[in-house]
Write a structure and sequence with these properties.
single chain, 26% helix, alpha+beta, 204 residues, 34% strand
Length: 204
């Protein structure tokens, strides 16, 4: 359990996860506080304000980019698990390109491997048909941003210059939680699958 600050209000946290994108971006946060404090910090998180942890800023993904699951403990104490909003939110101002199209895979106490969870997330978020036997070679390529961008360029597509799979770091709760940030688009998957099929690395 650690103390964090949100707009000057101190609350407790039992899990904190962030990812190094352009900045340290908050990905998951468990908050424990009395109702009055919770009623203050949650609107601030919803508004896109950052949190302070051990004198380090963990930057927000932006306004309306988080959702929270609330529960109650004893004596008026509440607990909330804050995670990124699974629904894409369009901001009225210019989109932050570093976080505009992320998907997150977060898990707690699971026997399923990280590789299996990433693959399952990819399969369920793309219209491109994928076979389970392609998992290892495709994920290996998706872990190499320079390789994908080279193949995109060869196909006349814009290079993205970002990591497609970014691990989360858990300074609090790291023995129980894991997660990754995915910034894989359909073109990444299509080009990777087509190239590997053409080279005989995967087969139908």
């Amino acid at each position: 359990m650690e103390t964090i600050k949100i707009e000057g209000q101190e609350v407790f946290s039992n899990v904190i996860g962030y990812a190094d994108l352009d900045l340290r971006r908050l990905m998951v946060c468990g908050i424990i506080a009395r109702r009055s404090a919770m009623d203050y910090v949650l609107p601030n998180l919803h508004a896109g304000n950052n949190i302070l942890f051990n004198d380090r800023i963990l930057y927000s993904l932006g306004a309306k980019r988080y959702v929270g699951k609330k529960g109650s403990l004893s004596d008026g104490v509440q607990c909330v698990l804050v995670i990124p909003n699974p629904v894409r939110v369009e901001n009225s101002d210019e989109e932050d390109k570093a976080v505009a199209q992320i998907k997150t895979v977060i898990w707690h106490h699971s026997e399923t491997t990280q590789t299996q969870r990433i693959w399952s997330a990819l399969m369920h978020n793309t219209p491109i048909p994928l076979r389970n036997s392609w998992q290892e070679p495709i994920l290996e390529v998706l872990g190499n941003a320079a390789q994908i961008d080279q193949w995109r360029s060869q196909q006349g597509l814009t290079e993205r210059h970002i990591e497609r799979i970014t691990p989360m770091h858990f300074p609090v709760g790291g023995d129980e939680w894991s997660g990754v940030v995915l910034r894989v688009d359909d073109d990444d998957i299509a080009i990777t699958a087509q190239t590997l099929l053409r080279r005989g690395k995967i087969t139908f």
